[in-house]
Amino acid sequence: LARNTPATDDAILRGIGPWENGAGAADAGNRSENVETAVDESFGHVIALNGRNALVDCGTEPAFTGREPFTIEAWVRWLGPGSSNPSRGHDPMSCIVGNRGLNAGCMLMIQQNGRALFNLNGLRQGQDADLVTVTSPRSVAQGSWAHVVGVYEPSSKRISAFVNGVGTSRSTEQPMHPSQSRWALGAQRAD
Fold first, then answer.
1. Are 77 and 148 a contacting pair, CB within 8 Å?
2. Which of 16, 25, 32, 43 is nearest to 146 (CA)?
3. What is the dihedral of CA 40, 107, 180, 127, to 10 degrees?
């Protein structure tokens, strides 16, 4: 990957997303922090999130309650463990997208061992009572592009995680509880 200059990053980010920096951006749910772009031979210009303190704030979606099935998917080039939870310090998971709240919301992330993890209703074992997680059987190869997917099917009470088409699912007794947190790319939540 070849890094672009910061001026090029700003121009490219304006062209590929509705987010912006500055006054009012946080209220609109379209801000970015520490986001760069990179040029990839296969994909062209891509958003480069460092897995530590870079995020794109995607705002809230009041209609997204978890009553309907959904799929979260992304092409990622994982460069190794990061920390996508700045409020907690070192956290070896790299979050792809999330809106985690207290016993609410969901996240799709890559664990320290490279396996995709998709969860509902928080992340804290023993504290988030309705937490349910599923981990992919296949790992994301460090430095390679991978297709990572999380699926929630409330009618069949199942969640699934996939890496490059290979996945697993598990049942969940509790539905996803709606989160008041803001959706983020590259972080567990944007607020």
1. no
2. 43
3. -150
